[in-house]
């Protein structure tokens, strides 16, 4: 690896009851009036939102609330948040929830601090000049938005899903209490574990010459997630497993396991269009396309896949590198199946028509304006073939 950038400015507060420090942190980072942004009823039923608001009241920090964020967060909610924040003269956003809530808060922060419609920054990549500060209380281990500079928003007009990475997109602080993730349903928990693995894999599959140390971190991180995901299947309240998975979600997406800009990211682009069209869980969508992508690009560097098989799945090295690589792909898919994740689109409840495949491929290329993939470059026809393969397996 000849060059990379590592930047992880987010302050982390990890452990039991750490959410009770939110008011102190807001004061530390200069908040005067806060928009508390959250998702559905879970934050209300669990009492978490009440505890957060009580902390703010006791610290005399004015706040307003906005709930209703959905998985694959919507542009309409972002625009509602921008209007509310501007009306209430908010100067800090506190996201209470998972990656969707954090992404929505980041988008609101951009919309409040930059001219024009916020969607222009996601869809047309207008340059971000500033953002309101954002902090978060994370309730799910998955996206790693807490420590990354990225966010993804879905526009209900044509159901386009677009991402934005910016130096202004880092949370100032992230509160990580593993106990808050216990209420996440099993399917979403395993979808989150898959997302963590995929964030690591996207960085692992690079055309750059890898560093042995970075590869070692990636292998250890993936083995850790695989081990503790299996434990959570049988013991969903296991604190140690919840803590391991939660911290893995941060390390998978904060640059420790590789520079984001040097990775592949084709599977994420393929999945974004699927979840934009069908509103599926992100991790599940990634699992459904990964095997088809892996087999399609395998011959770009079979040895890279073989090393994954050897170091993560303990598959013995052999002279037939390609055969070893295929065993590793099969082992990954077997694990996905074991934790209840789909390994093809029909298992996700989707049966694509040819017209839908064409539409997905067009959207994935930004209507023929780009290719995708860093490990192997994929054009419109390559993307169609991968969707076809995932649709037929």
UniProtKB/TrEMBL annotation:
Cited PROSITE patterns: ADH_IRON_2
Gene3D superfamilies: 3.40.50.1970, Dehydroquinate synthase-like - alpha domain
Ranges where the Fe-containing alcohol dehydrogenase-like C-terminal domain occurs: 191-390
One Pfam family in the UniProt entry: Fe-ADH
Keyword terms of this UniProt record: Oxidoreductase
Record-annotated Alcohol dehydrogenase iron-type/glycerol dehydrogenase GldA domain positions: 9-178
SUPFAM superfamilies membership: Dehydroquinate synthase-like
Protein name in UniProt: Iron-containing alcohol dehydrogenase
Source organism of this protein record: Amedibacillus dolichus
